[in-house]
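Think of the structure tokens as a kind of shorthand, similar to the way a musician reads notation: each symbol stands for something richer, in this case the local conformation of the backbone. In the example below we present two proteins back to back. Begin with the first one, reading the sequence and then the tokens, and try to describe in your own words what changes along the chain.
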Amino acid sequence: MRRCFIHWSLLAGLCLPGALAAQAAPALEVSWPGGMAHLDAAQLSALPRDTMSLAFHGGPPHRFAGPRLLAVLRQAGVPVDSLRGRGLAQYVMAEARDGYRALFSVGELMEELGNARVMVADTMDDTALPAEDGPFRLVVPGDRRPSRSARQIIRIQLGSP
């Protein structure tokens, strides 16, 4: 019996590092009617990057960098170009690890309409986001309050009413 215990503990020890590595690789789930994609940190960092400075709750300003939300949607394969009529009634909802949600209209994100500079940040002050904010954070500089600059974003979903 003891040999069996040692054998299983060794097997678990060999499998555990791989399982932990798989969990440690941050990915962002992007879904839309009829599709879903998972974008990892490397895919997001390969997108065109934007930088923005923003202060939260009276604190000092921080410099954030990452791709714009619209570029993330396009990379995932979400059909967001040339939207007219009913397509403009769609929304983009970002969800954080704790269930917090932030909502945007597709029209406000489109360059030719609202052109909102909503970013999916992966760095702050030239380093990876701290664990309590990352691995991804929305940065919305146009809002008077930072309520939609949600942290710990894990999912982005395109939907319609």
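Once you have a description of the first chain, move to the second and do the same.
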Amino acid sequence: MLHTFDDANFKKEVLDSKVPVLVDFWAPWCGPCKKMGPVVDALAEELAKAKEPFKIGKMNVDENSTTPGLYNIMSIPTLMVFRGGEPVDQLVGLQGRERLLEALKGAGKED
């Protein structure tokens, strides 16, 4: 299941999440974001069906400026993985499904 994150729900949905969270920072006018979107959507659906302990969602940077500013999002798409309220991985630009899955699974491992 794909989640929609915004400045208002970011703390509850991402920072307070009990499972690792992948956040896709994007904008509707961004060409690479349009290519990245279906990859993120498909991965969210795939992991939900497999009952994997991850949360995946998107944040529109045009509609939400506070959160991207806090994490110094300068280029989009930027994909960040959070665990325990902290960013643990950041990917900038187009990414393949395998790289996203690797980042999420890496965040799911205990140190």
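Compare your description with these statements about the second chain. The helical segments are 10-15, 31-49, 66-70, 97-108.
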